[in-house]
Specification:
The chain is α/β, with parallel strands linked by helices. The protein has two domains: about 140 residues, Aspartate Aminotransferase, domain 1, CATH 3.90.1150; about 230 residues, Aspartate Aminotransferase, domain 2 (3-Layer(aba) Sandwich). The protein is built from 13 helices and 14 strands. The relative contact order is 0.17. Its EC number is 2.6.1.39. Keywords: Aminotransferase, Pyridoxal phosphate, Transferase.
Length: about 375
């Protein structure tokens, strides 16, 4: 049986493929955006899991929008506006898929930064969207390019990760956030704000969500995979009710609802008196590992390489001399280090600068230092 045309043009996820190879315990993986399993708050969730044995109702079918106690908690926690609502999804990745299916017709234009999140490019590719990109600067998207893009293409939506961008780690400035919101309102473009790393800020000032400045032109994805556990597979999509209702309709046909026991477990965790301390500890661990990786790269990388500094998140973006980055990644993997080459983060990588995305959250300090030694030695062959 022939697969759908929309799927034929969507490549497999390089990151998922390399993670399979990187699962070898002898490989130091800087490839995936994996949280450290030692940070999972299992003990904080244990009382909730044990109490579920006396609550058969959480093992029954539930409403598509989500477990009502969790939805109500999040509505208050995020201080959603009166005309806004929420839907719980099986990870924020499902939220992205549902939004694409609810709103994108074949050929509709979606704007993204370049580079951008690979998973979003796959989702938009599956609904046959026309992806148009704008370049990224230190403060976020190139605003002149963005406005010109809005004028020329009349896009339906602009997808972005403003807080600790995947893959570059860039955090948008306050001025950029306000200007993007202004442009979305002026040109009637829906802003799709993906915020999976927002709670992982370990230095600097917390900035408002972009959607704060254009609440009725935005849909926001939030994830609990990075601050609780990826295995829970719980995310939440929020926005004005007229934006969320079609998403709920799509989800009804997709999976009826996300796991109720997992939603109940998340609610117990978020309400636990020690949850804030847990989050503080996670950020302290990741800050120390980031500093270890950053310092080692700064000390050992060839002078022709560039290195960004980040205030949070899970990634460092390393610019390298022009080369076949896939071949470099294969060589590094053969020497025991897994990285992600830059072309996978572009709809069209032709002419784009060579770079590597490095993750610092799932390796020990010793592994990070060893990985940089191997990386630097290999890069010297290209410099």
């Amino acid at each position: 049986m022939e697969i759908a045309r929309s799927l034929q043009n969507v490549p497999s996820s390089y990151i998922r493929e390399i993670l399979s190879a990187a699962s070898d315990p002898s490989v130091i993986s800087l490839a995936g955006g994996l949280p450290d399993p030692n940070t999972f708050p299992i003990e904080l969730m244990r009382p909730t899991f044990e109490a579920m044995c006396d609550k058969p109702e959480v093992f029954q079918y539930g409403t598509t929008a989500g477990y009502a106690p969790l939805v109500n908690f999040l509505m208050d926690y995020y201080q959603l506006l009166q005309n806004h609502s929420a839907v719980i999804c099986t990870g924020s990745q499902q939220g992205l898929d549902l939004v694409a299916r609810a709103y994108i017709n074949p050929g509709d234009t979606v704007v993204m930064e370049a580079p951008s999140y690979l998973g979003a490019m796959q989702v938009f590719g599956l609904v046959s969207a026309s992806i148009v990109t704008v370049s990224q600067v230190d403060s976020g998207p190139n605003l002149e390019q963005l406005e010109a893009c809005f004028k020329a293409h009349s896009p339906k939506m602009f997808y972005a990760v403003p807080d600790f961008h995947n893959p570059t780690g860039v955090c948008w400035s306050l001025e950029t956030r306000k200007k993007v919101a202004e442009l979305c309102i002026e040109y009637d473009v829906a802003f799709i704000e993906d915020a999976p790393y927002r709670e992982l800020r370990f230095t600097g000032e917390v900035l408002p969500l972009v959607s704060t400045f254009c609440p009725d032109h935005s849909i926001v994805f939030r994830s609990f995979s990075k601050i609780a556990s990826p295995g829970l597979r719980i995310g939440v999509v929020t926005g004005k009710k007229s934006y969320i209702d079609p998403i709920i309709k799509i989800k009804q046909g997709a999976d009826l609802h996300s796991s109720i026991p997992m939603q109940a477990a998340l609610l117990g965790l978020l309400k636990h008196p020690d949850f804030d301390e847990h989050l503080t500890n996670v950020k302290a661990i990741y800050k120390a590992r980031y500093q270890t990786l950053h310092d080692a790269l700064n000390d050992q990388l060839p002078a022709s390489c560039t290195l960004n500094a980040v205030d949070g998140g899970m990634f460092i973006w390393v610019g390298i001399p022009q080369c076949d980055t896939f071949e470099l990644a294969r060589e590094l993997l053969s020497k025991g280090v897994a990285v992600v080459p830059s072309p996978v983060f572009y709809p069209d990588a032709e002419g784009q600068p060579s770079a590597l995305r490095l993750n610092f959250t799932n390796s020990s300090p010793e592994e990070l230092v060893r990985a940089v030694e191997i990386l630097s030695k290999e890069l010297n062959r290209y410099c």
